[in-house]
Amino acid sequence: MEALAFLQRKTVPRHAIYVLSGEEDFLKRQAREKLLSALVPSDERDLAPVVLPGEQLDYSTLRNELDTLPFLTSCRVVVVENADSFITAHRPALEQLAAHPPPTNVLILEVKTFPETTRLAKGLPDTAKISCKAPPSYRLAAWCGEWAEHRYGKRLAPDAAELLVELAGSTLGVLDQELAKLATAVGQAESIGVADVQRYVHRSRAADVFRILEAIGAGNPAEALSILEELFTEGEDPLAILAPLSAQLRKLAAVARHVSAGQSLSAAMDAAGIPSWPRARQNAEQQLRHLGRRRLSQLSHWLAELNAGLKGGDPLPERVQLERFIVQLARPRT
């Protein structure tokens, strides 16, 4: 079951074992809190969870915790964090536990991966396996709209959602914080619009990178270098700047490949994950026209070369390497 669908459920089916899998810690925290709310009365919640580190855990310790009768609570909940290596080491015992679970207490396993092909996964019902994976980039704006409605009871306009992702970035925890701030700021209003996002949400590093890309698309190397200088002055690491820059440039390269394969520009942008709101499409189209086929075909190679250089493969200062790359992209085609 996907985490958002689980979080939107009004009731939580009771199971002896739950698995929270995936890389998104924000969704894991939300899913764990929902489970605790469903399993344990609010006045007992501080007493119920026992949290164990999976890296150093042996099975006998876990079994002792699960077999211990609840004290001052109606249910004892045992959470094993980072349980991947623990599951690998004790899979047969956990399979037996799933077949013959404790009658009262509950186990929550938090893992990065949980393949459905294993006997343990097959022995658990779907509602006990919660996938905590971040939505793909093209789904982030839609996720923000769904989360604003579910968590804060506010309708987030689609163009406001797109702008929010552009300004705040792709980290779900940060997006949730911004939505909480927006929900408070608009008060009794039922919806959050573009003007609200513009007023209350500050630009993230990723948003500043989008400003650099806009300057590149306009063929303005001086403006692009000026924004880059602002980031350096604020203490940003060149590799941290390269990450969102690289992500967007790879999308542009993917658009070019799809167009070369015969797709329309709109379909190619969809396939590459370019956001659908008008400004994002217009900026991407301008950047594609400016860069041209030759530079777009070399982007992947240039990015790999720059990444290696920033990690010690080039004797030039990191700042100079990034500045040189920006100028290479922003200067007019020859």
TrEMBL record:
Pfam families per UniProt: DNA_pol3_delta (PF06144), DNA_pol3_delta_C (PF21694)
Keyword Nucleotidyltransferase: yes
GO molecular function: DNA binding; DNA-directed DNA polymerase activity
Native organism: Thermogemmata fonticola
Gene: holA
EC number: 2.7.7.7
GO cellular component terms, semicolon-separated: DNA polymerase III complex
Catalyzed reactions per annotation: DNA(n) + a 2'-deoxyribonucleoside 5'-triphosphate = DNA(n+1) + diphosphate
Lineage of origin: Bacteria, Pseudomonadati, Planctomycetota, Planctomycetia, Gemmatales
Enzyme class: transferase
Protein name, as recorded: DNA polymerase III subunit delta
